[in-house]
User: What shape does this take?
Amino acid sequence: MKVKFKSELLFRKAFIPWYDTELAMMLTLAFALVVLLFSITGVAASVDTPSYHAFIWVPCLLGSLSLVITISTLIRLLRRGSPGSI
Assistant: This one.
């Protein structure tokens, strides 16, 4: 087995996981925005229909979780875009 020197380890190419690529983050952002729009529609339907008032928490929860994913993905994309931002 070959012994690696410290200088050889420093100049190795960085490994980027597939879920941290720009394409994967853009797809995550797109799906999260679609889910956010779906939850807004669900809240509107729940407000309009009196028998659904008890279930308004479901689209609200879905929308809030989607919003958290959207914001975190946007922050990661903006940090990656330019080194001096955020």
